Amino acid sequence: MSDHRRHPAIALIDGTFYGNDPHPHFDWMRAHAPLYWDEAGQVWGVVTYADVLAVSKDPQTFCNGGGVRPDQPAMPYMVDLDDPLHKRRRGLVSRGFTPRRVLEREARVREICVELIERARERRRFDFVTDVAAWLPLIVIGDMLGIAPADHARLLAWSEAMILGAGATDPACVLRATAAFTDYIAYQRAVIADRHAHPRHDLVSILVHAV
């Protein structure tokens, strides 16, 4: 690939790249290098809808089982699995997303939206992304994962630290990400133990009691 099709700001495995605003760089990639080779990360970036769809539908050529990051080994997560293991894990998780269960979540999602907007309005001046948009998916996912409302801010801090630490070269950033991961795993293990003993109407309960 010629030098004019490289972009120094693109770092596809660096968490800080995504922690900032990567979309202008994605626009550049679509216009100049829709199949972009990231030399530093040793990965290809695929940015057009048609190409992403083609890759997603060709598991014989493109697999997840080897890991989704070149700088880390595969982990026992659904995103790092191929069929038939992926299908089995997906089948368990899908029990928490049946049409009935999704419909049951509507009232709670509306409640969260109203709370976030009203809280932001009280400030009179606020940033929609950091004060509303970032919190909505976090609280919805946190509810499903058994995160107590009082710990939502902790979940946000853990998430941001881990995102920024992914592929980072700054030792301090890596240490913060490692600490966040350790704290989150300890927290989630406590939630799992609680749901084993006291099942609730949430995704964690469904998973730990799956047959």
Overview of the molecule:
There is one protein chain. With 211 residues, this protein is mainly alpha-helical. The chain has two domains: 3-62, no CATH class; 98-208, Cytochrome p450, CATH 1.10.630. It contains eleven helices and two strands; from the N terminus they run ααββααααααααα. The chain has helices at 15-19, 23-32, 49-56, 85-93, 99-104, 106-123, 128-133, 135-144, 152-165, 171-197, 203-208, and strands at 35-38, 43-46. The chain has a two-stranded antiparallel ribbon with strand order 1-2. Strand 1 (35-38) and strand 2 (43-46) form a beta hairpin. The longest helix is centred in the C-terminal third of the chain and has 27 residues, at 171-197. The chain is globular, with a radius of gyration of 20 Å. 11% of the residues are buried. The mean pLDDT is 87.
- Highest CATH level, the class of the largest domain: Mainly Alpha
Spatially, the strands of the biggest sheet line up as 1-2
Q: Any idea of the CATH topology of the largest domain? A: Cytochrome p450
User: Mean of residue pLDDT?
Assistant: 87
Report, as a whole number of angstroms, the end-to-end distance.
51 Å
The assigned structural class equals: mainly alpha
Helix content: 55-70%
Looking at the structure, what is the overall shape? globular
| Topology pattern, helix = H, strand = E | HHEEHHHHHHHHH
CATH architecture annotation of the largest domain: Orthogonal Bundle
Poorly predicted tracts of residues: none
Number of strands: 2
**By CATH's scheme, which homologous superfamily of the largest domain applies?**
Cytochrome P450
Number of helical regions: 11
Q: Give the total of domains.
A: 2
| Main β sheet profile | 2 strands, antiparallel
